[in-house]
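Project outcomes to date are best conveyed with an example. Our students and postdoctoral researchers have been running inverse folding experiments weekly, and each run begins with a structure described purely in tokens. The record below, which covers 315 residues, was selected by the lab manager from last quarter's runs and is presented without edits.
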């Protein structure tokens, strides 16, 4: 990221949690004129060292050209945009473009899009793929839908936050893409768990098997990224089975609506539910490995040595 490549737009940011803070930090370090708000001010204040300014009220961001939101859930987005003191309630100003990267329902996104339109604000749905470390290492991916002209206007900011920003069309299509992405996330992780257990049951260490897989044509950024969790049995949560189940529910509902049979996704949904019911609800979804090992009667042990997650250094 080099200062000077961003257009001279004033940027606001709402939500500096585990994802929002590193995303906003990338903009600040790239030289954006950035003002931020967070419900707990102390969580936003570290961004001041990167050049951001912390404001006390959401409405202090209403006169910004572009405002990003990254909050926890649908109810939170409704609150910060249309609730008491929300961004779109400011009487005299509203941003030209609103970019929401939160994971929310399509119904909430559509309602917020309509509320923004009433204020003359273009709304972009822009969910992301990754977690805080993925953001910090410059490997985040982003998908966007909404007015194409608005996407083109803010694209330099999107590609500063993420290594790629894909425009997929109008309306809430970005949320459908994110749901499809997370269906694949679950199916691939379950498959990776099954074949890893098979290899270990036959006498191959997880380290050796995953090293081979990651360097083959079947390996991917994702398999390499999940390798440390599989090798060390570190299920510190980045994305829990409960959150994954929610996306499977949404994905299978969409499949029903569009008449698309998804037998693998339906089976994986049941396996994810099994992980939740077996006490893995608060762990990372990599705990599907533990479920598969238990079904195979395999007693997993953490393996020694350093394992690279493939993400590279923080940028």
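After processing, the design step wrote out the following sequence:
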């Amino acid at each position: 990221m080099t200062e000077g490549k961003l257009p001279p737009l004033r940027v606001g940011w709402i939500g500096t949690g585990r994802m929002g803070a590193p995303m906003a930090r990338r903009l600040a370090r790239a030289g954006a004129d950035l003002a931020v708000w967070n419900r707990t001010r102390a969580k936003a204040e570290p961004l001041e060292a990167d050049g951001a300014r912390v404001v006390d009220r959401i409405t202090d961001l209403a006169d910004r050209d572009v405002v990003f939101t990254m909050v926890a859930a649908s109810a939170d987005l409704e609150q910060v945009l249309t609730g008491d003191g929300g961004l779109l309630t400011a009487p005299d100003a509203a941003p030209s473009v609103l970019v929401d990267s939160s994971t929310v329902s399509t119904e909430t996104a559509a309602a917020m899009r309509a509320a923004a339109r009433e204020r003359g604000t273009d709304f972009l749905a822009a969910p992301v793929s990754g977690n805080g470390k993925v953001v910090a290492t410059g490997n985040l991916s982003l998908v966007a839908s909404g007015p194409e002209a608005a996407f083109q206007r803010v694209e330099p900011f999107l590609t500063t936050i993420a290594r790629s920003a894909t425009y997929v069309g109008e309306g809430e299509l970005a949320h459908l893409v994110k749901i499809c992405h997370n269906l694949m996330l679950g199916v691939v992780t379950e498959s990776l768990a099954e074949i890893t257990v098979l290899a270990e049951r036959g006498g191959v260490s997880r380290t050796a098997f995953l090293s081979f897989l990651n360097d083959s044509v079947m390996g991917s950024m994702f398999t390499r990224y999940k390798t440390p969790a599989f090798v060390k049995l570190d299920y510190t949560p980045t994305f829990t089975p409960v959150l994954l189940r929610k996306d499977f529910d949404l994905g299978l509902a969409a499949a029903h609506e569009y008449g698309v049979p998804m037998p693998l996704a339906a089976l994986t949904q049941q396996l994810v539910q099994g992980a939740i019911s077996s006490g893995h609800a608060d762990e990372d979804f990599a705990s599907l490995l533990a479920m598969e090992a238990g079904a195979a009667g395999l007693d997993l042990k953490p393996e020694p040595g350093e394992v690279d997650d493939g993400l590279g250094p923080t940028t």
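The mean pLDDT is 96. The two ends are 8 Å apart (CA to CA). The training component of this project remains on track.
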